[in-house]
Fold these 2 entries.
Entry 1:
Amino acid sequence: MFKLIAKDGNARTGILKTAHGKIETPFFMPVATKTAVKYLDPKDLEEIGIQAIISNAFVLSLRPGIQTIKKAGGIHKFMNFHNAIFTDSGGFQKIKDSFYIKSTDKGLILKSPFDGKKQLLTPKELMKIQNTLDSDIAMVLDEMPLYTQSKKEIELAVERTHKWAEECIKHHKNKKQLLFGIAQGGLHKDLREKSAKFISKLKFDGFAFGGLAIGEPEKQTYAMINSQVKHFPENKPRYLMGVGCPKQLINAIAAGADCFDSTFPTQNARHNTLFTSTGKLVIKNSKYKNDLKPIDKNCDCYICKNYTRAHIRHLMKLGEPNGLRYCTYHNIYFINNLMKQIRKAIKEKRFDKFRKEFLRKFK
Amino acid sequence: MFKLIAKDGNARTGILKTAHGKIETPFFMPVATKTAVKYLDPKDLEEIGIQAIISNAFVLSLRPGIQTIKKAGGIHKFMNFHNAIFTDSGGFQKIKDSFYIKSTDKGLILKSPFDGKKQLLTPKELMKIQNTLDSDIAMVLDEMPLYTQSKKEIELAVERTHKWAEECIKHHKNKKQLLFGIAQGGLHKDLREKSAKFISKLKFDGFAFGGLAIGEPEKQTYAMINSQVKHFPENKPRYLMGVGCPKQLINAIAAGADCFDSTFPTQNARHNTLFTSTGKLVIKNSKYKNDLKPIDKNCDCYICKNYTRAHIRHLMKLGEPNGLRYCTYHNIYFINNLMKQIRKAIKEKRFDKFRKEFLRKFK
């Protein structure tokens, strides 16, 4: 399912085969929690060249419900997106007060963000949901410990995550769907290693670093990736969940990660922060009032080819939906294009130089 | 500037030449008050085949300010729309509490919806704003009486409208820009006729029925159009301001109107009401939960070709921006396509049959 094409240091490029096409790694997934990336249609995503998106299995099980998506012929047909779709719904719900209640041996007790109704989400139930949604890649149920919890608590969460991982494999029935495991361990090197070793022995199609980039010091993030990456098999993709900041992406790729998702680029866009080849640009800033340049003169996206900073600033100042759309489009294009450039740099064995140059320019 | 191509009863089809292309009449303009049709980019509008849009001169004079638009090279370059752009900002502000304070002999006293600041908008000032925005068609400043006002008050408003019309002509300096006059008269046939006669003698490139479709009984709307249309010259376009409901559009065309604008289709879309060949469809309705049909099986728009009622309902139920976008796109396409069909029917001398058929089917 995964073919490694080239390595440059720890950075890798490869091809992940899914039921909806091949994904070149490293890649970034925009988040389509409810089957929609806010302000971008599937057509936009395909025009940008997005290879995969990620949706939330638990949310979809509540609205519109898995039967509606099943009747539509699966999540791809339901939303009309033709490339790969990941689904997940695990421990990361913990950082969302609107969802998480508590964790038990059997599963996560979550509440519906729509009506507050409590529900036990077991490994078996989550597999059933994802099997029915018919996404290309399902993620296991995990318990994500917060790094601020005691080591004992984190250790228990790791054990529970391991137990659930085995249950997920047992209940995963969709043959066309890949299944990725998730390793945890907080900020404890020994627990991280232990978890990576355990999870990587199970029959997964890919492996995720869970519980990182949730507020811990950035140095620690990379230390934890380093402690786990060496235990993950070379011939499987490695997914760093929840990362979408340009600098973190490039550094995580340097550490050996292949796959990412985050609302960071889309949320930043909606809050006026745009990514450019020279760093962040806050479009609402008054200095852009009469600026007829594109967001980024080095960007080839439809927005940069057609709209000025002055126009986008005006729309954003007045809260016009088109402003949100233009900003979102640009940020997603920027990240996707960064991934393309990174893949090329890895193939051409100049990734480290590219990374340093990028970090020097991206203020 | 306007060439009449065919007539069928009072319904007409023709071509209005503007600095940004020819417009086939009858036509409908989506409203882009702040240089953006909510949820549709200029690219979408051009894809749909929208020939013209209308923006608000007073609003643009406040945000971003006419200098910003002038520096960008005019409103077309500012927003990157390549077809015709109308601008207006007259008496219709009266029905918007957020704008209107009062009317004096000199002009309208308006307040900024952004900071509440009062401002006198004179005919001269409005012409200067529109000349600078460089829209293709400018509308005069008028005083729109409410039909609930006394006949004496309406008569005074009509006289003021006439005086301002002459001042607008005097101060209109942009040679590439067309200028349309507006006739008023409340629901008084004699005042309507008097106003149409007066305005049609002035050197305008088109003539508008003002102060209609603002809540009066629909029968009265057509009676007022009928009383004015006969005084408007045949060789100039006739603009019924503020109408966008499918039934009213087709009936107004039957009465001899050529040009329309309204937020009706876009606002309806955002409130879940979609137009179809068999009438209105409320997409949030639970009966569409698992409905895999398009919004309208007879519609060729991108949305109907790619998304199901079930998916759009799901997005609208959860307030996802993409839902608003899909619904807006469809409704604007529907109205634009209706205009196309109407033009064809007029040319083929079967407009009345087409109209009756449409009204029978459109519940």
Note: Chain A touches chain B through 40 residues (CB under 8 Å).
Entry 2:
Amino acid sequence: MKIAILGGTGSIGKGLALRWSGMHEIVVCSRELDKAMKAAGECSTLLSDKGLFCSGISGSTNETGIKDVDVVVLSVLYQGIVPLLKTLTPCFSDQIVISLVVPMKKNRWFEYTPPKHGSAALEIQETLPKSVKVVSAYHNVPARKLANLDITLDYDVVVCGDDDGVKGTVMQLTREINNLRPLDGGRLASSYMIESLTPFLINLAIRNGLSEVGVKFV
Amino acid sequence: MKIAILGGTGSIGKGLALRWSGMHEIVVCSRELDKAMKAAGECSTLLSDKGLFCSGISGSTNETGIKDVDVVVLSVLYQGIVPLLKTLTPCFSDQIVISLVVPMKKNRWFEYTPPKHGSAALEIQETLPKSVKVVSAYHNVPARKLANLDITLDYDVVVCGDDDGVKGTVMQLTREINNLRPLDGGRLASSYMIESLTPFLINLAIRNGLSEVGVKFV
């Protein structure tokens, strides 16, 4: 598959690019072409230094990058996501969109601040054309560990979505990353549960002196 | 310590009684004395059959049981909890109360239905005298596994509470159960996060064909 990663210059975006690059064609996207090219180059070099096979990682602007892909990963901040997606609407046709977006703010601690739709995933689904299927996943995989190929991950990834076929595709993409176990989290309306886990996990890590934590359901 | 367990005839109440009975004096409580005595007797027999030391497990009515204890565990259904606690108010002085209570309903799936206070724990704190300190914990430890002493537990227990000393006591009680790791979840106002995990975990188990699941933050 061809996968565009918006916010591909951040840890989690790079991590997904690196972990999927042996099996899929990756387009690292950014508002600025330079940054996207640089991040894609860094990923290629890192894979080549490790002697790992790469199906192709390229850099692109958001507009060009998402046009002809099967999957668009939204690994970006919540702030500004709706205006961003509105400007990108002409570039969407029938892609699968995976939302990692978590609306949260920090006072003394992090706090989940869902929009009136109930979750970022539902707001994103409403913003995009109906032919685009939104799935919610990967909010709670520790970013720096995902981006470090020397670390074997061992986490559960809860996947929410309204289209069972599309959800199955994202669960399969998850299974392709060693030791990530996809779990069906139900419909997109349940996304608030996995989105709200993110600030909760960050607070838990800070309070208890843990490094970034993910979650396992055992 | 002397620990009264309301709802001590259910799996999770029995499980806590069994796991703490080597170190603490347990009072299994129920509305009906017969049921409480029977459950306490079953626990004693089970421990004695396994050759395990027991500091004492007795059965009692709720009213008598909670009077002279250090800790009261509320392992009861949300429905009816407020009227129950109001009738018990004269029996409370300055006990620590551990709430395992989760307000939820089942339509097709389980759904968290917090009261207007934001969580069961906050509502319980408001219902009880101010001298009673409420802590929220143990919602997400699989009940049947807790009650089966042949199973070594390996879960995280997030503990929320407003009094740091009291929260520390409950975290220590948690540590005394092999392989349960207590984590500080912040103030009682954060209890909605761990309460709402319960229906989420039940749904996740059903959807994915898992047996009852708990949680680990890794």
Note: Chain B has eight helices and eleven strands.
